[in-house]
Design brief:
about 200 residues, mainly alpha
């Protein structure tokens, strides 16, 4: 008897059952990462939503313009996902944060309390704003923009911070609704040298 819980409450299609374009995305990720993250497998249950989700994900997270680094983008996801209680995103994006920041401690610090984390004042201001968007977006004001401008963010960067926070708010909620479990591979990523 297998005691490992399923990765989703909903059916998870076999790789051979998914549309060709989705299978190609999964195979490319598997080749790069060495495994297929469960988010790809679980969202393949709804192919049209899979495509929409990853199109917006990639537009936000693979963007090459603006001043946010890959590590800072993952920092936003990790901090806000922790506030939303999303195990999958904290674990998965925490792993990416450790890798991009080249720091095995930062993801845990940011997930628990970014105010105590070993990050820059600029990054702390960015996360203050992201958490405000996450928890109290109705209270965003000119003062928030002024503070971020003082830390070197422009309006397009501020849009990015808000959009990443909002997109992962959706992701966090869906991961919780379907009980998406993180892959075991994420737990070691960025903590020790890769074999």
């Amino acid at each position: 008897m297998n005691s490992t819980p399923p990765i989703s409450r909903f059916p998870v299609p076999d790789l051979q059952q998914v549309p060709d374009d989705i299978r190609q995305v999964m195979l490319a990720v598997q080749e790069k990462a060495g495994f297929v993250p469960n988010v790809f497998l679980t969202l393949a249950h709804r192919p049209a939503e899979f495509r929409a989700f990853f199109a917006y994900h990639d537009a936000l997270m693979l963007k090459t313009t603006g001043s946010l680094t890959k590590a800072e983008r993952e920092m936003i996801v990790t901090a806000t996902s922790a506030k939303n209680g999303c195990l999958y995103c904290v674990v998965a994006h925490g792993a990416l944060l450790r890798i991009y920041a080249k720091n095995p401690l930062v993801a845990d610090q940011v997930a628990v309390n970014h105010l105590k984390a070993d990050i820059t004042p600029r990054q702390s201001a960015m996360l203050d704003f992201a958490l405000k968007v996450c928890l109290h977006s109705d209270q965003v004001s000119d003062a928030d923009y002024d503070l971020l401008h003082a830390h070197g963010f422009d309006d397009e960067d501020i849009w990015d911070i808000g959009a990443i926070t909002a997109f992962f708010g959706l992701s966090n909620r869906m991961a919780n609704v379907i009980s998406m479990r993180p892959n075991e591979e994420f737990f070691l990523m960025g903590r020790m040298p890769r074999a």
